[in-house]
Design a protein that fits this description.
461 residues, mainly beta, Tachylectin-2, Chain A, 60s Ribosomal Protein L30, Chain: A, 2 domains, 9-stranded mixed sheet, 4-stranded antiparallel sheet, 25 strands, OmpA-like, OmpA-like_sf
Length: 461
């Protein structure tokens, strides 16, 4: 069994030295916007600092991995607590047995502490009162089926644990798994056998440092997957159902990721912490960073809100005329055979346009999307590819985000209608692929679009 705690050997000192789906009223996925990014200098040292956990407004818990002394190979680490107001820090000793320990979860009443003792990995729960000088008996946590475990993360709700460990199908890469709390018996805390989070999360590269928000749907994790900035990047995704297998396409937090190692992201209220080695000379040891953050909410368009309130708007305007393929004004959707599937169908292409700086869906879009959802539900051997685009007004970074929001708005609506997650793929290109010139109002309108490609699923893929 591996004896390192947190990072794959490739990334850590141990290796170097060793949708919103939920209750949201929006069909588009909200985005995180960061500001005031900086290193937490109070905890920076010649050693490595990782795994930050915010404990209230005044305390920050983190793990410090010590640089081995000359001639030594043993890695030492421990949990420390920073007083954010005074800058004072102290090491915590929570378990009597000794050994290397680190806090891996903070709930409303409990701490979860992982320990390596005499070569074995153990997990315990304790009352959070120990952080205030109180006493607590350590309760052993039992999880069947653990193997080659790298790290753990316990959700603040206290009943969900995310585990980083070998999947068995790949010897050198770790995957993310979930386990659920069953209860106490025979003096132990029992959890379910770990279950994989599925292939949307688990790529063929390294996955590590999961953090599940209290809503139990929003997941942050790091990965070395293709499309990142070069090192391990931080991603955000949303759980789409209760199987824990279906997730929205992970979004790269490009505002805070670098070409180096970025991981162990945690988010609470308006403050984010994570670990990164971006500023180290040897690019090997990580420090703790923080940033102010806020959600960029994407609200429903007014006519959808009116519709939900029972106000029926004018439905004569449809998006059939917004097809990228030519469509005569004399042709109706039925006459044109819109979404008519048969053995000869391979690809059909359509486009939905959006307002200035908006990812809102309007009522005139809904008729087309309802028809499309029916086709996909009745024909599970078909899929769609949604390609989001923007005009050239504003910054290219903002337009890239906006193009993703537009494609996600359509995907979320279709998923709510019952379309399978596997049938919908999202891509986004910002302002890079204009349909026409951005020099005119009409041209910019045509460029603010999501192209919809309907095709048969290639079974061999």
């Amino acid at each position: 069994m591996k004896q390192y705690f947190f990072l794959n050997a490739k990334w850590s000192l141990m290796g170097a030295l060793l949708c919103i789906l939920g209750t949201s009223m929006s069909f588009a996925q909200d985005t995180l916007v960061f500001s005031d990014l900086k290193k937490v200098e109070e905890v920076s040292s010649i050693h490595e600092e990782i795994f930050p956990l915010s404990f209230g407004e005044k305390q920050l818990l983190f793990t410090r991995i010590y640089r081995p002394e000359a001639g030594q190979q043993t890695i030492k680490y421990g949990t420390w607590c920073l007083d954010v107001e005074t800058g004072a820090e102290q090491q915590l000793h929570l378990l009597e047995e000794g050994g290397k320990e680190a806090i891996v979860g903070v709930t409303d009443s409990l701490l979860y502490v992982k320990q390596v003792y005499q070569g074995e990995i153990h997990l315990f729960s304790l009352s959070k009162a120990v952080l205030e000088g109180g006493e607590s008996k350590a309760i052993e946590v039992e999880i069947p089926g653990l193997k080659d475990i790298s790290s753990l993360s316990v959700c603040a709700t206290g009943d969900i644990m995310l585990i980083v460990m070998s999947s068995g199908r790949r010897k050198e890469q770790d995957d993310l798994f979930v386990s659920f709390k069953k209860g106490l018996s025979a003096g132990k805390e029992h959890w379910t056998r770990p279950k994989s989070l599925g292939r949307t999360i688990n790529s063929m590269a390294y996955e590590l440092s999961p953090f599940l928000q209290r809503d139990t749907k929003t997941l942050f994790f790091s990965s070395e997957r293709e499309g990142g900035k070069g090192g391990a990047d931080i991603y955000r995704t949303e759980r789409l159902d209760d199987t824990w297998q279906q997730w929205a396409e992970p979004i790269n937090l490009s505002e805070i990721n670098t070409e180096h190692f970025d991981a162990y992201f945690v988010w609470e209220d308006s403050l984010a912490y994570w670990a990164s080695n971006r500023d180290t000379a040897a690019a090997a040891l990580s420090d703790i960073y923080r940033a102010e953050g806020r959600w960029n909410k994407v609200e429903l368009a007014k006519d959808i809100v009116d519709r939900q309130a029972g106000i029926v708007p004018d439905t004569t305007a449809s998006l059939y005329a917004n097809r990228k393929l030519p469509l005569s004004t004399a042709e109706s959707p039925a006459e044109k055979g819109l979404f008519l599937l048969d053995a000869s169908t391979s690809v059909k292409e359509y486009a939905i346009e959006f307002g200035v700086g908006s990812a809102d869906l309007y009522w005139k879009d809904i008729a087309l999307l309802n028809k499309l959802s029916q086709v996909l539900i009745q024909n599970r051997n078909y899929m769609i590819k949604l390609q989001g685009h923007a005009d050239a007004v504003g910054s290219s970074d903002d337009n890239l985000i906006l193009s993703r929001q537009r494609a996600e708005a359509i995907r979320h609506y279709l998923l709510e209608k019952g379309v399978s997650f596997a049938q919908v793929k999202v891509q986004y290109h910002g302002e890079k692929e204009p349909l026409t010139s951005n020099n005119t109002k009409e041209g910019r309108q045509q460029n603010r679009r999501v192209e919809i490609y309907l095709s048969k699923i290639d079974i061999e893929q």
